[in-house]
TrEMBL record:
Homodimer. Catalyzes the first step in hexosamine metabolism, converting fructose-6P into glucosamine-6P using glutamine as a nitrogen source. Its EC number is 2.6.1.16. This is Glutamine--fructose-6-phosphate aminotransferase [isomerizing]. The chain holds residues 241 to 608 of 608 of the full protein. It is found in: Cytoplasm. Its main location: cytoplasm. One of its GO terms (cellular component) is cytosol. Keywords: Aminotransferase, Cytoplasm, Glutamine amidotransferase, Repeat, Transferase.
Amino acid sequence: EAASKGGYEHFMLKEIHEQPRGIKETLTKRLDENGRIKLDDIHLTKEDIENISKVYIIACGTAYHAGLVGRYAIEKLVKIPVEVDIASEFRYRDPFVDENTLVIIVSQSGETLDTLAALREAKKKGARILSITNVLGSSIARESDDVFYTWAGPEIAVASTKAYTTQLVSFYMIALDMALKTGRIDDAEYKRMIEEIKLTSGKIQHIIDQDSKIVEIAEEIKEKHNGFFIGRGLDYNTAMEGSLKMKEVSYMHTEAFAAGELKHGTIALIEDGTPVIGIASQEKLFEKSVSNMKEVKARGAFVIAIAQEGNTEVEKVADRVFYIPKVDDILASILTVIPLQLMAYHVSVMRGCDVDKPKNLAKSVTVE
Ligand code: G6P
């Protein structure tokens, strides 16, 4: 086992470090000689896409959080309404799905029982099924009409990291492909975005190289019992994933909130020293996010901000700031999650938890 960890202390850390490569594999191997996306196992034609009235994204756990980012990418780029649902909820809700619905199933393992059952339910109702999975020939892959394989490589740690970031890249690629086929994006913007996605790989590496800053932050919160992750728009989705990571591996009780919603109740829970991780990567929402950080700071929170380089304004409010490299708002989720993965990892190690096999959790849940 030590050998397969490649010199890393834990699989989770190894897999965090494998993300720049996972993204490169997922993206660059699917570009043709003209730099266009070539999706071998997805056969959606222009006409098919034009007939889609609605997209449903269905998944569990971390894959569900990837789906939330996927919704944003598809609505923004392809301009089709998207709903995202948790598989175990979708199954029993008698969802409104028909032949004009595209159902996107997201599952690292391709074997999660609730997700597989949701796939079958959607298929029964006539939907076309496109799955995003990391495991070749898995049940979900076999039962889908179209498949996108994330080329993250095997993920061993129970807490998902590299599967998540490659799922995000998959969504951007699927959305870009659908947008180009239907003329909803012009060629120049399409190419520019592919170049931007390519660059995220090096930017993730740059974040990982600053791990010592995250270790310092982890030291400051390692003994806390409660914490909050807040953000707006895409940053809210990242907050949900960051909070899940922290709970999964360190057992610290954290909750994610849409930053603007805090004042409607949750802010009552902020006490002196409560850690609040505020994600403020969205340039358009930056000032609003900073003002939400101010609100919690005024109530005694210990504020840790994640912002894009150059937005130093945030230092006036936050106790600690971690900067991610400059990136398009729409792609920021690929980067903002990295410091949160590292933070959860370090807090877990400092608390003496079983990082790779947290109590009560399984890598793949094949029961209801
Ligand atoms: C389990 C794992 C999670 C994972 C979820 C969905 O609960 O512990 O890390 O996100 O299943 O797994 P999947 O393989 O369907 O992506």
